[in-house]
Request: fold
Amino acid sequence: MISMQTLSLPSSPTTPSPYSLSRPPLSQRVYIPSHIYKHPAAILLEICSSIQELSQIIPHIYKHNLYNEHLFQTKLVSLFCKFNSMDDAARVFYPIEDKLDALYHTMLKGYAYNSTIDDAFSFFCKMKCDGVQPIVYNFTYLLKLCGDNSDIRRGREIQGQLIVNGFAFNLFAMTGVMNMYAKCRETCDAYKMFDRMSEKDVASWNAIISGYAQNGYAKIALELLVRMQEEGTRPDWITVITVLPALADMGKLIMGKSIHGYVLRAGFDCYVNVLTALVDMYAKCRAVGTARLIFDSMESKTVVTWNSMIDGYVQSGDPREALTLFETMLDEGIDPSDVSIMEAIHACADLGDVEKGMVIHRMSDQLGFGSNVSVTNSLISMYSKCKKVNEAMKLFDSLKNKTRVSWNAMIIGFAQNGCVNEALNYFCEMQLRNIKLDSFTLVSVIPALAELSNLRQAKWIHGLAIRTCLDTNVFVKTALVDMYAKCGAIHTTRKLFDGMDERHVTTWNVMIDAYGTHGLGETALKLFSEMLKGSILPNEVTFLCIISACSHSGLVEHGKYYFEMMKEVYNLEPAMDHYGAMVDLLGRAGHLDEAWDFIQNMPMEPGISVYGAMLGACKIHKNIELGEKAADRLFNLDPDDGGYHVLLANIYSAASMWDKVVAVRSMMDKKGLRKTPGCSLVELRNEFHTFHSGSTLHPQSREIYAYLDSLIERIKSVGYVPDTNSVHDVEADVQEQLLSSHSEKLAIAFGLLNTNHGVPIHIRKNLRVCGDCHNATKYISLVTDREIIVRDMHRFHHFKNGTCSCGDYW
Reply:
């Protein structure tokens, strides 16, 4: 006698719980002889692990005439779906005459996981046409697909089908609906579903907590965690890995430690995913050391674990250690994922190490990530930060499926490299292609406009932010504050700042720095005091801004006090830029010996910014001895920068040491170094007009020079005396001619000629304003009764009624 075994199918829709599978009706039971199960081909199908193995087994099924057996048909359909070969699954499925319902369910699952949403819904419709009664799993597969594709319309249709088919109170089904709403960012609807549930299990709690956490509502997610426990549901390990990212986003280290304790008590520390989530939480809460202890103690690690630890080092400002860990990962034979590659690229960008970046670029191509849009976006950012914007542009232009992130990365890349026009052109092209802007787009393009110091365009981009409802975003608003400050509109800057409901530390930094660069040091100090009274803690950038503000306004004692506060009160270690700012503070005020002693006692080897500040101070105060010492160090650190040679030559020139001036210039000629030519820009009717010293290329040159000659005579009559000390080896009248043709004087004359009385003139200069131009501009503002705003490479000068906002201290 042949023994028989029954092959059970999934439960019918009348089954009260999706977890308990009842015996199917007689019409759907298939009796399979036991010898079929023992056939070698059946055994091979059970252990089959790849499409390649399956292709080798199929000939044996044909050879032994087993193709029409239900067991083999079902198994083949299941395996083809599992291996993402839906065309082959369909070739098996459709010729079967007496199809079991189980085959339909398997095919639908295959389409849901491996094909498009349209294919899955088309097959679901076929099921219904063929009279197959759907089961709860059919709906949950489709709900997941709708959530993954953010297709809220179809998701609502499936919810309706669930209700029609009697699953309105099925906990498993309603949790699937809730998940779908959360993935479609409809958290209110997700919560309504959750709130209506008469019964809630840990899976439904996890779904709603995850929904809020993944949609940026970390605080609500944590509140729900507390409520979950109050209502008697014990969190499981999935709850833990759901809530830890929310804690990380909020920086709730104390609560994170509490969850860590719960993990240990509950025995969840045996789960790799839980330990990985803890590593990620500690790293994002700036406790990188603790994250590393957990990481090192893990017996097994996934690539996600490595990625979390590498990202922790990148985000905490230790890109070198991030790259070291990445190399260790490779040495241990772990295949990097696209996220691993992106983190390594990010580290190279932060280090400015383009050589290592290129190595990782080649590795990325070898691993098959060359067409990965996210990886390419990271490479665009890396090359841009490493001053290789042309390489970034090549990658962008070759990218087939550009995303909004790609455009943002390229726009900010141009802005970072001073390619303002290119940044604006790409921004305009992005709009022409109807690519929707987001906050990152605006934060990318606003700095480019800020560099132009063009108030009209600043108002235009501000209006665009309002029209797109992005002006309420704290990062956009911070960028707007910075932009208006760099356009010279300091009062508008403060109005925007005061109108912000939310301010980050970056917002405060931008406003403090704005007051500093506009010469309003006392106001910057008041704002800093206001910041300290609130809940925002200052960071390293805050102290750099406040020390620089003190430097611009000659507030030496205040600057010293805040430098000490940074170390002693806030435990922030000064970086090279902070030491450079302190040298600038002391040097500008004439405390040159103190500045030099400060340099000698630095705990690190002084860098270019430090000696550069010292040389600039020596030039202001005509100190030859210390100027030579600073220049000597600079020539060793950066021998190819002609600017420092020019500064030293100017120091010698002021002391009439012409032989040494000649020596420095000869050295520059031998090295092929050139002085950066002075250049001033002024905008008129949507067009920028550029002026270089002594240039006659402008179409209005004849009128400009004629007007300037008369203007010089007018200001001489009220007290202006040309400073000819910097010009030698020519006659006195020629000296004055050379001074009067400086680029900013030409730009001011052009502005006065072409604008109406009462309209302020905005000038952008690439170098520091020279003493003669500064003095002349004060007198020009007096005799013309015009406000002239000049932004040089360091700060703003507001000239009005014969005075300058800097108080002649710059």
Q: What stands out?
A: The CA atoms of residues 7 and 29 lie 7 Å apart. Strands lie at 4-7, 30-33, 679-684, 687-692, 761-765, 788-791, 796-800, 803-804.
